[in-house]
Design brief:
By secondary structure, the protein is α/β, with parallel strands linked by helices. Helices cover about 45% and strands about 15% of the residues. The radius of gyration is 18 Å and the shape is globular.
């Protein structure tokens, strides 16, 4: 069979966390189009969940939730070839360090750092035994450009995820497993719209003014707009494919030119 973009992941089993909407859904759809058997997770099953994607309802911010996913994937499919740790987000209040409690910090760390760590720990032994596998961590440019007024714990957790991802790659690349990070800038999703609403409420401005404030805080987006989820998914689709076989240990920034340094 001739290998093309439409079938280059045929025979591969892929898990996308946070795969029911937004960027996660776009990534799951992209891997499915490339021929992979796709599993997605989220807290709740969406009404429009497609039948050709195996869905697992689980709360990955809790250790029991990650273990549930690991157990079901391995018992149902036997192994995992591709893990995309996409789940993440910020539910903490705006207002800077003073309004943040220990619970706010712990919630962000559980969701944005420890959930990927636990899933990696669950699936890496099988990947190492087979001498192959790909793990992608979806981080954020806030690891380098934190917004202290809005998402301080989220930015700190994503910075830790980038560092962890690089360290993990150094350990497991000699064993045949590639580990990569994708750091998007602002993506036009429902979650980003909710974040604008929270910032607006905290600052007593409109959502449109909040969005302009975020653009200004980021230094502007030279391309002139946020990314679409499908654009991030296309990058992930390439990175997990055989065409990217020599890529590991790298943080791929997709931000429309937002980060002002090289």
């Amino acid at each position: 069979m001739k290998v093309t973009i439409d079938n280059e992941l045929a025979g591969k089993i892929a898990l996308v966390t946070g795969g029911s909407k937004g960027t996660g859904k776009a990534i799951a759809d992209r891997l499915l189009e490339a021929g992979a058997t796709v599993i997605s997770t989220a807290r709740n099953k969406p009404e429009d969940q497609p039948d050709d994607i195996h869905f697992i309802a689980a709360d990955l911010s809790k250790p029991d939730g990650t273990q549930q996913v690991i157990d079901e994937v391995l018992s149902t499919f036997g192994h995992l070839d591709i893990l995309v740790n996409n789940m993440g987000g910020s539910e903490t209040p705006g207002g800077g360090y003073a309004v943040l409690s220990d619970a706010d910090w712990l919630s962000s760390l559980q969701t944005n750092l420890l959930a990927p760590v636990r899933l990696d720990r669950g699936f890496l032994p099988g990947m190492i035994r087979r001498g192959q596998g790909v793990i992608v961590h979806i981080a954020s440019i806030q690891a380098k450009l934190p917004l202290y007024d809005a998402t301080l714990p989220y930015a700190a957790a994503k910075a830790a995820l980038v560092n962890y991802s690089k360290s993990l790659s150094n350990e497991v690349a000699p064993k045949g497993v590639r580990v990569l990070t994708v750091s998007p800038g602002w993506i036009m999703t429902t979650a980003s719209s909710r974040m604008m609403e929270r910032i607006a409420e905290s600052a007593d401005v409109t959502a449109e003014q909040a969005a302009q404030g975020v653009m200004a805080a980021l230094g502007g987006i030279p391309v002139g707009r946020p990314a679409w989820p499908e654009e991030v998914a296309e990058l992930v689709g390439f990175l997990v494919s055989p065409r990217a076989a020599y890529l590991t240990g790298t943080d791929f920034v997709i931000d429309g030119g937002t980060i002002p340094t090289i």
